[in-house]
């Protein structure tokens, strides 16, 4: 039996992925953020492949909200990126300091 795909079910799945993205951002779970965005992107592509000729005003509003959602998250993800890079820089400085200490210690 072939399952029929309707617009509402795909839009609901896209909304679920948006929730997953929000939750992942709150938890700073970078790999899960990436997975959720990839799944959502695939759903959106599938949606437009199936329903390109049947887009109405509700769909335009829904995807406008997604665009707003993404622009808000872009700023949040930029902050996370800066924090991760700063932490990485700090770790690299500590690692270099330990390496220099070990080199000095091993010479004596």
Order of SSEs: HHH
Q: Give the helix level as a range of percent.
A: over 70%
Distance between the termini: 78 Å
**pLDDT average, as an integer?**
88
Beta-strand segment tally:
0
Radius of gyration over all CA atoms, rounded: 22 Å
- Basic shape: rod-shaped
Structural classification:
mainly alpha
Strand content: under 5%
Give the helix tally: 3
The major pleated sheet works out as: none
Uncertain regions: pLDDT < 50 for 5+ in a row? Answer: none
Structural commentary:
This protein is mostly helical and 108 residues long. The protein is 86% helix and 0% strand. It has three helices and no strands. It has helices at 7-26, 30-51, 57-107. Helix 1 packs antiparallel against helix 2 and helix 1 packs parallel to helix 3. The termini are far apart. The model has no long low-confidence stretch (mean pLDDT 88).
Per-chain topology:
Elements (H helix, E strand, L loop, with lengths): L6 H20 L3 H22 L5 H51 L1
Helix pairs in contact: 1-2, 1-3
Nutshell version of this structure?
With 108 residues, this protein is mainly alpha-helical.
Task: Name its key features.
108 residues; mainly alpha; 3 helices; 86% helix; rod-shaped
């Amino acid at each position: 039996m072939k399952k029929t795909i309707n617009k509402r079910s795909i839009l609901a799945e896209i909304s679920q992925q948006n929730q997953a993205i929000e939750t992942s951002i709150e938890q700073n779970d970078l790999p899960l953020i990436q997975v959720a965005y990839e799944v959502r992107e695939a759903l959106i592509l599938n949606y437009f492949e199936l329903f390109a000729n049947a887009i109405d005003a509700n769909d335009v509003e829904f995807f406008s909200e997604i665009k707003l959602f993404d622009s808000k998250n872009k700023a949040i993800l930029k902050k996370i990126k800066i924090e991760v890079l700063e932490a990485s820089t700090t770790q690299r400085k500590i690692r270099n300091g330990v390496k220099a200490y070990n080199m000095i210690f091993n010479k004596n």
